[in-house]
Amino acid sequence: MSLFKYVPVLLLLFLALPAKSALQVNSPLPCHKTIKVGYNDWPPYAWQDPQGEAQGLDVDLMRAFAVYLGCEINFINVPAKRSHQMLKAGQLDVLMGATMTDERQAYAHFSSYYRDEELRLFVLDEQKDQINIDKWEDIFTKKLRLLVPSSGWYGADYQESQYRLEQEHLLVLSPDSDKSVQMLTYGRGDMIVGDTMAMPYIASQHQHIKLVPLKLVLDQNHIHLMLSKASMTPSQLEQFNQAIKALMDNGEITRVINKWQQMSLAKQSNMSRLNSPLKTLYVSP
Q1: Which of 66, 118, 156, 217, by CA, is between 20 and 30 Å from 195?
Q2: DSSP-derived secondary structure for 98-145
Q3: In Å, what is the CA distance from 166 to each residue of 98, 170, 173?
Q4: What topology does CATH give the domain 117-221?
Q5: Is residue 44 reached through a cis peptide bond, with omega within 30 degrees of 0 on the bond before it?
Q6: Do residues 162 and 140 make contact, with C-beta atoms less than 8 angstroms apart?
């Protein structure tokens, strides 16, 4: 009699097992596949080294998120505009270092922010006493030519007055930040717009010159991961948010950011000790 007493209980346990197993197989885990992470050359946040490996602040953080989640990731170097098209089509799963906009939210999930960004105007060190602006309108009243990389977000003031800058011949577009710095040294613009860490880093590392930021702050934004709506689910987004929170709480994100800030400051300090005149470093084409 005791055997029959427990048969219904055993039968219920047996019937429950397949359902639990199916739930595990179908659960939207963040790493059911290798995650394709797009990036473009934007030091010190991301760039491709001579060996073809991704390097940079955002790259280090993305690797840390992947380790926390147990993810396999594949970094793919692509131009900025193309990377967004690939994310929209699901050919890339994640983009790093993104500012949230309404347009981008149409095709991407945005993670919790993991760092901040500040945009400012920069001039060559030797011109810091000649060029000063207190407000955006001073660009027009003083007829200052503004060098702007063609892809990116540069604040509401720039967005709203881009057409006016073009009409008054004060806007000089460039393919990227590196080329913008080169053009600044050639005298093709008076100022350059960019991220407060990236622009001085690019100038010192790639062009061996020192840039000085003007006091006007153009914009301040939280920076996020973008996950493709075509290839990544809201559940996967939540997993990445958990990783960001965990690494924020344990200090790993702060440690990585501080490391790259110190490296950037060190490179700029080295530039301030260079005594070679600018004309010996550059020859106009």
Answers
A1: 66
A2: E---HHHHTTEEE----EEEEEEEEEEGGGTTT---SSTTHHHHTT--
A3: 26, 6, 10
A4: D-Maltodextrin-Binding Protein; domain 2 (3.40.190)
A5: yes
A6: no
Full DSSP string of 4-41? HHHHHHHHHHHHHHHHHHHHHHHS--TTSS-EEEEE--
Task: Look at the block and give the residue holding tokens 């994100």.
Answer: 253
147, 171 contact by CB (below 8 A): no
Counting Cα atoms < 13 Å in the Cβ hemisphere of 37 gives 25
Ramachandran bin of 208, using left for φ above 0, alpha for ψ from -120 to 50, beta for the remaining angles: left
| pLDDT tier at 269, thresholds 50, 70, 90 | low
pLDDT at 53: 96
SS3 category, 262 = helix
pLDDT per position as a tens digit, 86-114: 999 999 999 999 999 899 999 999 999 99
Q: Where are the domains of the chain?
A: 35-115+222-265, 117-221
CATH number for region 35-115+222-265: 3.40.190.10
Q: How many whole angstroms separate alpha carbon 172 and alpha carbon 189?
A: 7
List, for residues 128-178, the tens digit of each pLDDT value: 999 999 999 999 999 999 999 887 788 889 999 999 999 999 999 998 888
Across the range 236-252, mean pLDDT stands at 97
Q: The tokens of 16 are what? A: 């429950």
* pLDDT tens profile 7-35: 444 434 333 443 333 323 333 456 778 99
Q: List the structure tokens of 177.
A: 């930040």
The residue assigned the tokens 């690494």 is: 247
CA separation, residue 111 to residues 16, 43, 119, 232 (Å): 35, 22, 21, 12
